[in-house]
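Re-running Dipeptidylpeptidase IV N-terminal domain-containing protein to confirm reproducibility after the cluster update. Everything else is unchanged from the original entry.
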Amino acid sequence: MNIAPLILFASLLLPLHSSAEEHQNSNPNGGDTIVFTTLGRSRYEFDIFALSTTHPPSISGEIRITDGESVNFNGYFPSPSPALISLLPDAALIQPGDSSPLHLIYVTERNGTSSIYYDLLHGGDPDSKSKRRSMLEAQSRVQIQLLTNADNRSGNTVNSFKDKPSLSGEFLVYVSTHENSGEPRTSWTAVYSTELRTGLTRRLTPSGIADFSPALSPSGNLTAVASYGERGWAGEVEELSTDIYVFSTRDGTQRVKVVEHGGWPCWVDESTLYFHRRSDDGWISVFRAIIPESGALSTESVNIQRVTPPGVHAFTPATSPNNHDFIAVATRRPGSDYRHVELFDLRRSEFTELTRLVAPGSHHLNPFLSPDGSRVGYHSCRGQANGKRSPLLFLENIQTTTSDLSLFRIDGSFPSFSPAGDRIAYVRMPGVYVVKPDGSGRREVYDGMAFSTAWDPVRPGRVYTSSGPTFATERTEVDIISIDVDAIDKSSSVRRLTTNGKNNAFPWPSPDGKLIVFRSGRSGHKNLYLMDAEKGETGGLWKLTEGAWTDTMCSWSPDGEWIAFSSDRESPGSGSYELFLIHPNGTGLRKLIQSGTGGRTNHPIFSPDSKSIVFTSDYAGISAEPISNPHHYQPYGDIFTVKLDGSNLRRLTHNSYEDGTPAWAPRFIDPNDVVLRRKNDSSCAFEDCHWLNKNPTTLKGQKISC
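Result of re-run:
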């Protein structure tokens, strides 16, 4: 009898708060909608796969473990404890002596939020010879949500980013961002321990400290993390300058720094750690730290040894308990555009390639080993391994903490809403597009390179944008254009409003449609100007700000009172940007918000009632090691809102990506995913960190960023 695979879902501790059915309301009392961009995220189709470490790698030998639908990553093979098994809906799913079930704990993004799941999968052992009928008739997959986005004490929904889970007997250890650090430009990322049976949660990271990439020792008694300690994140966007700390998993005490400069730790036994860092020769390599079994523990008493040789970037190491024969690593080899998983023989100091022999044209990230070392897991694009594809979402609903706010990730950049809220303009670089909020009627209205969009409030169908390259100097040719998106003749739909090409960008019209505020480099510095909205600069040009700094990313409040913009005027050229407000007549200049010293607050946009601003910022620091993710120009940045008096600062997004270019809709949009189209091609595509493309011999004297 052919039994269709059945997926069982169970939730631990608390009910789910993110099901689509709970959000199918039209919100008759009104509400707000914010849309933002995450670079590349809509193209992620991550599943977790596994290969044998004892057999030659092959396509047929690769197992897809996760569901083929969600975005699944950063897995962990647990040794199933009684507490974990007790969560199963049927204890008979685990039979004595049955080696075929595969246990996996992992991070998943689904239903608009990230969470940690436990999957039990039958038939996943390529070496299993017992293909019993009872196993074939059992459910092929059981999924159990180990954590919910609900506060244990209040029961209220809270947003957070979850990462790097592992299991220590009764306790799940993981990273979460649900607690505000209380300081600007300070990471909210901390390590927590949750008892599986009761849901009781303990913070293991000291207050005021951020920890990343936790790893448990084989006994589970010790946890190692990458951490900045009290000095905090300094703004790195490539390999982080974290140190390695060790503490008691039980309560976070006995915390000691054991390695200066290291990340992504993993244990092979109670006194041996592996980690990665950039070597003096420029190659990112794996190192070994041998911790003394007695005596005082400090960075001076720990013996550090380089493990992987120069000539290849090797990082995110993985170990299995008491396995001193090999480790698994991710590599970027010279001449290759792809990240692959390899084994490294610790006795022979030799690499053995794995994933390149299976899928040479795909990236494979963050390997992890089974407890017996017989299997290596990793996440990668799922391709068409399951015979189906996930839909490409135009608007992806992101979970919020209140029903009066809907939040969406858009498949595009620089979105803006028409005055009635019935159309959205956005860019694809190149190209400017217009589409209805339900995803229908999508049209390209300009095929050139452009960035930023803004709708005219009084002239129907007119969109303003910046035509030219992004992130360019003051003298680069960039001009403001207007596009009649409803013009029948596309060739006559574009009008150029600035003519000198001195990096004129970020246009935003006044609410009466008479003027446009924009930034220009015509003086040799990027400052703000006003010009006639109909005739452009030939109809009148007025300087709004002036100085040897950069004022940029401006927007006009709907009530006409304020212009918001981002500026480095307090530290010109430093890369640090803060949000300022100014009246259109040049008076009332004041700083609204600053992200610590050296931070960034960008892309301010007003709410429809002109009382708040949405913006992107590194105010919450960084949430994960950048090398553990695909390419992001700035591997930080979340969406925030704030009142015009600086009060009620609110973080809306929690992830380790780069969120930016938000837009505030003039009307509420129901919090449901909007499908752009069904994926019928290999649309899972992303770039690896750009700074891994360079060999150390070419890095000297260059500043590159991910």
